[in-house]
Amino acid sequence: MRTLLPLLMVDQTPESTSTQERDPCVDHTVLEDPWRATTNRLNAKKCDNLLLWQGWYRLLHEGASTRMPETCVPMNRCGTDIPMWLNGAHPRLEDGIVTREVCGHWYNILTLAASCCHFKPPSIRVKACPGNYTVYELVGPKFCFTTYCMEPGTVFQQRLRLKMVLKRELSHTEMAQFASQFPSNAAWLNRTCECCMVKSHV
């Protein structure tokens, strides 16, 4: 008991409290691993369970901000067996910090059928930041081989552009359609934007 008392006193100091209240949009680590892209079909047996996760992370792909996919990712993508995706919509700026479920796509050993959410790692906290980027409080998934996936930077930027044209968030159906048409989504985006611009002038 005598050894615990000093630790409790340290935890209650103003300095420690200010550390806990830091804005994750400012205080975060950049995670820039190209192999995490959903378009990466090379399975290198990466495993995020072997890493020491601490604090908040901002995802970058080829130097551009990106984020986790909100739709099921095919198995053997993102450099691993079991790709992990965000099962829920990303928060808006006004939402603050939210908690979201993470899913891992893999086979059900009993039915041998693939399930987009067969593995459920611990939920993570997510926050939208000014400047159109997102930060995540990532945690170890507790099993291998699995990794957190990220959208390719080009996909994220194109979707962001579409969001600005439509002046609203994309629905899950639109998100799935957008993802399924990669890499031809650039042409799809241009057609959609042209259509929206025509309607706005009618």
Keyword list:
disordered N terminus, nine-stranded mixed beta sheet, 9 strands, alpha+beta, 202 residues
> What's the main sheet like?
9 strands, mixed
Instruction: Give the proportion of residues in helices.
Output: 25-40%
Q: Termini, distance in Å?
A: 75 Å
* Shape type: globular
**Beta strand %:** 15-25%
Number of helices: 5
Radius of gyration over all CA atoms, rounded: 19 Å
Overall average pLDDT: 77
- Low-pLDDT residue spans: 1-19, 181-202
Helix/strand structural class: alpha+beta
* Element pattern in H and E: HHEEEEEEEEEHHH
Number of beta-strand segments: 9
Q: How would you sum up this structure, described in words?
A:
- Residues 57-149 form the UMOD/GP2/OIT3-like D8C domain.
- Strands 1, 2, 3, 4, 5, 6, 7, 8 and 9 form a nine-stranded mixed β-sheet that branches.
- The model is unreliable at 1-19 and 181-202 (pLDDT under 50).
- By secondary structure, the protein is α+β, with helices and mostly antiparallel strands.
- Helix 3 (153-166) packs parallel to helix 5 (185-200).
- It has a domain at 25-151.
- It contains five helices and nine strands.
- It has helices spanning 4-11, 14-20, 153-166, 172-180, 185-200, and strands spanning 29-31, 57-61, 64-65, 82-87, 97-107, 114-119, 124-129, 133-137, 146-148.
